[in-house]
Structures are given as structure tokens and as C-alpha cells.
Amino acid sequence: MQDIYIAGTGIWYPEDIITNDEIVSSFNSYVDKFNDKNQEMIKAGTLEPLAHSSTEFIEKASGIKTRHVIDKKNILDIEKMMPSVQHEDASKLSIHAIVGIEAARKAMISANVEATDIDAVILGTSHAARNYPSVAIEIQNELGIDGYAYDMLVGCSSTTFAINNAFSDISSGLADTILVINPEISTPFVNYTKRDIHFIFGDGCVATIISKNKTSDNCYKIIDRKLITKFSNNIRSDWSYFVRAAEDEKAFDDLLFYQNGNSVFKEVCPMVAEFISSQLHRKNIQPNEISKFWLHQANSRMINLIVSKVIGSDDFDSSLAPLPIEKFGNLASAGSMFAFNLYNDLKPGEKGLICSFGAGYSVCSIVVQKA
Ligand SMILES: CC(C)(COP(=O)(O)OP(=O)(O)OC[C@H]1O[C@@H](n2cnc3c(N)ncnc32)[C@H](O)[C@@H]1OP(=O)(O)O)[C@@H](O)C(=O)NCCC(=O)NCCS
Question: Which residue in 116, 137, 122 sits closest to 215, CA to CA?
């Protein structure tokens, strides 16, 4: 079969950084104001008071220390608690296209390819910027790429599923080189008044060049892919084009991202560990042959638990499973390839494993070998 490579990657992230102390201080001020405003009902027992958040909880429960966001000021402002953004329209590039192009240009330099070498653009994201035209086609146009382009949505597995599609198109002969772009501008969709989720997300974008040619000296051959989906309502958003016409009223806040994080944790960890173990077994690869696990960056405890189940020990060097989540927060589908971009220091012949897991549930695991 044709060899196919990850030939280069590029990342974009915003300059604004929010620390845990800052997000907790903003949240707690909101809570104090809410409880003060509603003190009569709270005293009467008809309303539950809101509880404070804490830096200690966030670091212990998630591993997150900071997150990069598109608009720190308005997220922390308790009168707003969301980033300030504009409607997208035909007069300007969409935000997904702007950040996607930045990451794409870096990926093209790292892979040593020009726009004329690229045959297709696949954009995968958790939150579509609009319905149509595809942002991928907008980026294709801006970069001067021929061929085809489309957007796809698979929650937190959008990046790996898009890489998988690129691989399939190349192996079927449809294309030689494909640009995969994954913008994850999640903060407009976060309800910063909810204690269990206000600290989780950051904004970022990753781009990846998949090619049948070894275009750079930092290529990783894709040696196996495995995908699974299993329906769950534990990570859900009901925002849709039905919002305008729906006759049953729902508040905007009820349509945003929500999750039952504890159930996700308990269900997804064993599922992913078993999934990866059976993939390695099928490929006759011993777990200790994997030099790096670039896993979905939702929770550092999840990452460490999954790796320890796969290798059969919780005594491993932290460099085995990088944790960019500490600095960037949860970057939705971009997390695993962010980790790959920042920590791809394998020697020729060494193997690594990229794995996403998230809404759907959806899981995709890709085994690579440094060329
Ligand atoms: C979200 C997550 C960090 C929460 O951690 P957790 O350990 O499961 O926390 P729980 O929800 O069980 O809450 C534990 C306790 O902390 C409290 N708590 C929740 N948020 C808190 C906060 N911000 N500050 C302080 N305490 C908090 C809860 O009220 C609960 O208290 P109790 O034990 O008295 O009832 C974790 O479940 C997670 O990351 N899950 C996976 C999410 C995921 O992969 N999502 C995919 C989307 S991309």
C-alpha cells in the first residue's frame, strides 16, 4: 500500500492568557453578586445559593493552569462573561478562516509545500462558524489552492477524523497532498456562569499537511488508523438553525455546550484504553514501543489514566504523554495535534500514537512512525 505521511503541522493561538486565579476571581465575583441580588429567595429557601469555584479544584480535577483566549477582558468582565465577537458576513474573512490560514501557512512551511502542491482542504471543527459556504472553500480560495474543499463536524474528534479522511482520499488516488485545518474557537460557546465548566476551554487552531510524498525531513508515516463512535448525550449542544423557528422557548444558555463531566470521565477512559490496546495488539505493536502518546487534551488525569492502563503501569516519565492542556486548556478537537506539534521529537523509526476522544462519543487513534 502507498506510504502516507504527516509531513508538517502548524498552530495558531491568541495572545490573551487567563490564569486560574483570574477566572476564579471573576466567577466568584459573579456568584457573590448573584447571591446578594437573590438573598431574599435564598433566605426563604426557594433558591439555592451559587457556590464559589477554586483554583485548587481546577488544577487538581483537570490539570489546567492557564488558557489562551480571543478576548480576556470581556470573558472576565462579570457584566459580560463572554468574548466580544462580530457577526460573520460576506464583507470580510471569517474568524475560522483567519486563524486557519495562519496555522496553514506554518504547516506548509514545516512540510515544505506550496499552495500549488495541495489538492484539497478539509476543515474539521466542533463548532461550525456558519452553515455555508464551507470555510474550507474560503481558505482554499485565499491560499490559491486548486481541487476541492469541505467542512466536517465530529466534536472533539474532528481533527483526527479529518486526517483520516485525508489519508483515505490519498490512498484512493483522489489526491496526493491534503491540507487539514482545525480551528477551535470555543470561548464564545462557553457559559462562564457555570461552575463545572467555566474553566475548561481555550481557543486555538492546528493545521496538518498529509501527503504521499516525504516533502520534509520531519515526516511521520501513518501506519494505522482506528475509529469508533458510540452515541452519548453526556457532551451535548442543541444550538442549531431550528433556534429561529422553534415554538418551545429555550434560553440561549440552555443551548450552549454542556457536559456530564464525571460520567464522561468514567465511561471514556476505559473505552479509549481498551480501544488503543486492541489496536496495538492487532498491529502486533507492544505498548512499550510507543515513544509518545499525543492524546486529546480534555483532562490531564484522563490522559495519565489512559496511558497507564495501556502500558500497564502508572510509573512513567511525563514526557511520554505531553500535557499542553496545562497552558492552553481544552482545545476541543485541536488538542491532540497541538500536542503533536509541540512535542514531536521522535527519532527515525520510533513510533507514536495520536488519539482523540470526545462528543459523540467519537474516538480516532492514529499510529505513526518517524520516517
Ligand atoms: C469536568 C471535570 C474536570 C470535573 O472533575 P470531577 O472530578 O469529575 O468533578 P465532579 O463534577 O465530580 O465534582 C466533584 C466535586 O467538585 C465540585 N466542583 C465542581 N466544579 C467546581 C469548581 N469549579 N470549583 C470547586 N469545586 C467544584 C462539585 O460540586 C463536586 O462536589 P461534591 O463532591 O461536594 O458533590 C472532569 O469530570 C472532566 O474533565 N471530565 C472529562 C470531560 C471531557 O473529557 N469532556 C470532553 C469535552 S471536550
Answer: 116
Q: Which three cell numbers stand for residue 228?
A: 469508533
**Pocket residues: Cβ below 6 A from ligand 1:** 53-54, 57, 61-62, 156, 195-196, 235, 259, 261-262, 264-265, 298-299, 302, 330, 332, 358
* Ligand 1 nearest atom to the CA of residue 156, by list position: 48
Asked if residues 29 and 78 have their Cβ atoms less than 8 Å apart, the reply is yes
DSSP 48: P
User: Domain spans of the chain?
Assistant: 221-370
- Please tell me what DSSP assigns to residue 1: -
The domain covering 221-370 belongs, at the CATH homologous superfamily level, to: Thiolase/Chalcone synthase (3.40.47.10)
- Give 83-134 pLDDT, tens digit per residue: 999 999 999 999 999 999 999 999 999 999 999 999 999 999 999 989 999 9
What dihedral angle (degrees, nearest 10) is formed by the CA atoms of 343, 347, 349, 355? -10
234 three-state secondary structure = coil
- pTM given for the model: 0.96
Indicate the average pLDDT of the chain.
Answer: 97
Q: Provide the CA 28 distance to its chain's centre, in angstroms.
A: 27
Cα of 182 from ligand 1 centre, angstroms:
27
**Bridge partners of 51?**
none
CB contact at 8 A, 121 and 136: yes
Please measure the distance between the N-terminal and C-terminal CA atoms of the chain and give it in whole angstroms: 16
Model confidence over 148-199: pLDDT tens digits?
999 999 999 999 999 999 999 999 999 999 999 999 999 999 999 999 999 9
Give catalytic status of residue 364 as yes or no. Answer: no
Helix, coil or strand: residue 364 = strand
CA distance 117 to 131: 28
Mean per-residue pLDDT, 336-363: 97
Cα(259)–Cα(277) distance, integer angstroms: 27
